[in-house]
């Protein structure tokens, strides 16, 4: 006999059924699957949702289930999905921030020896235990903000050994975390000092040696690359992404953060699961992304914190793109783990609607991780992963403005 559990009298629940049907394009209020006084039946063995609907419509076979709980005065939405973080790192970057406040740009600070390479140095020097301890604290904080699924990138080791160590840290965290963690290999985050002025040779090394080694370990699901002036060109990224595909990785691309170099077209062409940042995306690429399956991951916290333009969310959504939101949590451009706050910034600064923002941190963020069949909505067959809001409506998520925990 299956161990079925009944949750009843849930004051408000969002299934996101309509968002799911539209695969996350043009999400509207009517797509959120809003139910008042809802019930849900869950299989406690598999942790999968069996039935969800209005309390009055509960099928008779579930009416007398012995295991039942009340959701009175609770608002249930899908547990949030954080689809872009760089949370394995040592040290801090408050000095970069102080320099930016004096007028220096992100690129100027990086060129003067700050930026990613400062964090790389601190990460290489940190012990494995210190990295685990630091990351575990971050995960606990993310969990407070209602997040149940979270992607983590490497990219602050930049030697094979230290990149593998970051992936091992993610694996160690996965063993204990209630969260679903998704590991991404990002060795092409910056050219390490050992390869200064020889980025092509570094790219060749990743393709010929690192990708096959990491593929063998099975420690990473995705491969990512930072396409930007001073980092990796579209041509170098093409080589890297092709090798990653050959080795069985799924793809992500950091593109158009400070300039538009062709990374977006490349990501679309190669079927990347997501392209992230897009602050400087061209009109032509907006149209192309709107017609593709690739998710546009927008990172308002990074724009806010570096004082650079916000991405054109309205244009992307109106073109039909599947738009997700994320913190981009990292020590340089967004040290915040507050994903609900990103929905507020998206609504006020990027003119997204509340339903669009809700879809962007649930179903569409799950799609950016190829996990939309498991998480990001509350419909039969999906994992029972719920974010309970201490509020009287889901609209409180962006409204509470940095206070929603
Ligand atoms: O997504 N853009 C590249 N990577 C990070 C920043 C990393 C850093 O500055 O340490 C980002 O914003
Ligand atoms: Fe990033």
Description of the molecule:
With 405 residues, the chain is of the alpha/beta class. The chain folds into 2 domains: 4-78 and 378-393, Urease, subunit C, domain 1 (Roll), CATH 2.30.40.10; 80-367, Alpha-Beta Barrel (TIM Barrel), CATH 3.20.20.140. It is built from 16 helices and 14 strands. Helix 6 links the parallel strand 7 and strand 8 (180-188). The radius of gyration is 21 Å and the shape is globular. The mean pLDDT is 97. Fe (iii) ion is lined by residues 84, 86, 254, 328, 330. The site of fe (iii) ion has 5 residues, from loops.
Essential attributes:
405 residues; alpha/beta; Urease, subunit C, domain 1; TIM Barrel; 2 domains; eight-stranded parallel β-sheet; six-stranded mixed β-sheet; 14 strands; binds N-(iminomethyl)-L-glutamic acid; binds fe (iii) ion
Question: How do the strands and helices of this protein lay out in sequence?
Answer:
Layout: E1 4-14, H1 17-21, E2 34-43, E3 48-54, E4 68-70, E5 75-78, E6 80-82, H2 94-101, H3 106-111, H4 116-125, H5 128-144, E7 147-153, H6 160-176, E8 180-188, H7 199-217, E9 222-226, H8 234-246, E10 250-255, H9 263-269, E11 274-277, H10 283-291, E12 295-298, H11 300-306, H12 313-318, E13 322-325, H13 339-349, H14 354-360, H15 363-368, E14 386-389, H16 396-399
Helix pairs in contact: 5-6, 7-8, 13-14
Q: Name the average pLDDT.
A: 97
Helical coverage, percent range: 25-40%
What is the global morphology? globular
Kindly state the number of beta strands.
Answer: 14
Task: Summarize the main sheet.
Answer: 8 strands, parallel
Tell me what the CATH architecture of the largest domain is.
Answer: Alpha-Beta Barrel
Low-confidence stretches: none
Q: From N to C, what is the helix and strand string? A: EHEEEEEHHHHEHEHEHEHEHEHHEHHHEH
């Amino acid at each position: 006999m299956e161990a079925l559990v009944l949750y009843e009298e849930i004051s408000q629940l969002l299934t996101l059924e309509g968002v799911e049907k539209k695969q996350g394009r043009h999400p509207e209020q009517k797509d959120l699957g809003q139910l008042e006084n809802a019930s849900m039946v869950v299989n406690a063995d598999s942790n999968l949702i069996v039935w969800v609907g209005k309390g009055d419509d509960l099928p008779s076979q579930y009416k007398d289930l012995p295991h039942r709980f009340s959701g009175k005065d609770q608002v249930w939405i899908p547990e949030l999905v954080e689809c872009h973080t760089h949370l394995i790192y040592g040290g801090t970057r408050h000095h970069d921030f102080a320099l930016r406040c004096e007028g220096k740009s992100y690129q100027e600070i990086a060129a003067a020896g700050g930026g990613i390479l400062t964090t790389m140095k601190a990460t290489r020097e940190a012990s494995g235990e210190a990295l685990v301890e630091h990351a575990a604290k971050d995960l606990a904080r993310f969990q407070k903000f209602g997040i149940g699924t979270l992607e983590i990138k490497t990219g602050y080791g930049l030697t094979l050994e230290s990149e593998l160590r970051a992936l091992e840290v993610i694996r160690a965290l996965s063993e204990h975390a209630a969260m679903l963690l998704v590991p991404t290999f990002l060795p092409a985050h910056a050219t390490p000092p050992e390869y200064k002025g020889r980025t092509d040779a570094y790219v060749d090394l990743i393709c010929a040696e690192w990708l096959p080694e990491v593929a063998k370990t099975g420690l990473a699901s995705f491969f990512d690359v930072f396409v930007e002036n001073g980092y990796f060109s579209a041509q170098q990224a093409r080589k890297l992404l092709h090798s990653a595909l050959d080795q069985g990785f799924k793809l992500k691309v950091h593109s158009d953060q400070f300039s538009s170099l062709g990374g977006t077209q490349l990501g679309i062409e190669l079927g990347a699961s997501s392209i992230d940042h897009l602050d400087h995306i061209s009109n032509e690429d907006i149209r192309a992304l709107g017609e593709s399956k690739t998710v546009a991951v927008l990172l308002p916290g990074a724009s806010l914190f570096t004082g650079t333009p916000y991405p054109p969310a309205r244009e992307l959504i109106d073109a039909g793109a599947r738009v997700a939101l994320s913190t981009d949590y990292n020590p340089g451009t967004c040290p915040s783990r507050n994903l609900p706050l990103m929905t507020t910034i998206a609504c006020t600064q990027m003119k997204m609607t509340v339903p669009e923002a809700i879809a962007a941190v649930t179903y569409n963020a799950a799609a950016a991780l190829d996990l939309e069949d498991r998480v990001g909505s509350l419909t039969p067959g999906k994992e029972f992963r719920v974010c309970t809001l201490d509020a009287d409506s889901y609209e409180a998520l962006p409204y509470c403005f940095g206070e929603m925990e």
